[in-house]
From TrEMBL:
This is TRAP transporter substrate-binding protein. Keywords: Signal. GO terms for cellular component: outer membrane-bounded periplasmic space. GO terms for molecular function: carbohydrate binding.
């Protein structure tokens, strides 16, 4: 036979239910306010979270975007930025945008490869002929089409993440065959791993935050990334060689929750698109300066910079091109046709 609740237990249960109800109502009010603004005409606030430090060119560009949105809207629309992983890592922020928990974030397109097969094309080695070709693709019909393919999100603008090259701790890479047998850290990108394998190396996916230790302890022999990351990751402290293989140019993308985007008025959408496009141009200027600064710092530390015959490196990529999925191969052909 069940026993009735004591008066004290009944009070505790009742209090807990009331607290849960109040929290639920408060959360619902917060979501409604952030999506639709308040009835008294106060500013609508959008939240942008990312994992980059505040001195990174992409963060600085997004800060400029927030300023421009404020100016264009006359303060009716605001973007609050939460940098440096304050509300989650890059992957966590991306998931929050997809789930409409925050409004905007930044991601490397390589992170999206598993959910958008076409976007693998942006990681294919030696696909872009030069910077002009790259930006014609990103800012043209192909870039817009890919930006509309994202699950639960919409691409707003692309940011420059530079040319990715190899850097190593002990053995210099002076020709393509020098990669053979080396353990090279890559992103969690099938295309990046296949690229290293095509050179005869051993691709080793390691989280970015653990890479400095992996390089210094010899867990990996090297990595592949851009010059500013070589600097901000302090990898130049443990790597003696930087080889300008310049094998890929994987962009960053500014994304917005699709639910947030569809809740905006046409005027608000116009403000955000204009500010995002301007921030992309501004970031490209910052990126060029950050590359120069990173090289100066590395040279002061004694890093040897090595120029190579990139055609020789590109020739090793034929098996990778032959094995591309149909959706990726189709987009690669489209990109190659852009003049």
């Amino acid at each position: 036979m069940s026993r009735p609740f004591s008066p004290l237990t009944s009070q505790l249960v009742g209090g807990t239910l009331i607290a849960v109800l109040l929290l639920s109502l408060g959360y619902a009010w917060h979501v409604r306010s952030s999506l639709r603004g308040t009835a008294d005409g106060s500013a609508r606030i959008l939240k942008l979270g990312h994992g980059l430090p505040t001195d990174h060119p992409v963060h600085m560009a997004m800060s400029r975007m927030a300023e421009r949105v404020h100016e264009l809207s006359g303060g009716k629309l605001e973007i609050q930025i939460y940098p440096s992983g304050m509300i989650g890592s890059e992957a966590e922020c991306l998931k929050q945008v997809q789930n409409n928990q925050i409004d905007l974030s930044k991601t490397s397109t390589a992170v999206l490869e598993s959910s958008v097969p076409e976007i693998v094309a942006f990681s294919v080695p030696y696909l872009f002929r030069d910077g002009e070709h790259f930006w014609k693709v990103m800012n043209g019909p192909i870039g817009r089409k890919v930006g509309d393919m994202l699950p639960g999100m919409r691409g707003l603008a692309y940011y420059d993440a530079g040319l990715r090259s190899f850097y190593t701790t002990r053995k210099p890479i002076r020709k393509a065959d020098d990669v053979k047998g080396l353990k090279i850290r890559t992103q969690q990108s099938r295309c990046a791993m296949d690229m290293v394998s095509s050179f005869g190396g051993a691709p080793t996916p390691i989280p970015w935050g653990e890479l400095y230790t992996a390089l210094s302890q010899g867990t990996v022999d090297g990595a592949e990334n851009n010059l500013p990351s070589f600097d901000t990751g302090r990898h130049m402290e443990v790597c003696r060689y930087f080889t300008f293989s310049e094998h890929s140019r994987v962009p960053d993308m500014l994304v917005i929750s699709r639910a947030t985007w569809e809740s905006l008025t046409p005027q608000q959408q116009e403000w955000i698109e204009k500010a995002a496009a301007e921030s992309s141009l501004y970031q490209r200027e910052l990126w060029i300066e950050s590359e120069k600064q990173a090289r100066r710092k590395a040279e002061e530390l004694g890093v040897e910079f090595i120029d190579v015959d990139r055609k020789e490196f590109a020739e090793k990529m034929k098996p990778l091109y032959d094995g591309l999925p149909p959706e990726t191969a189709a987009l690669v052909r489209e990109i190659e046709e852009v003049k």
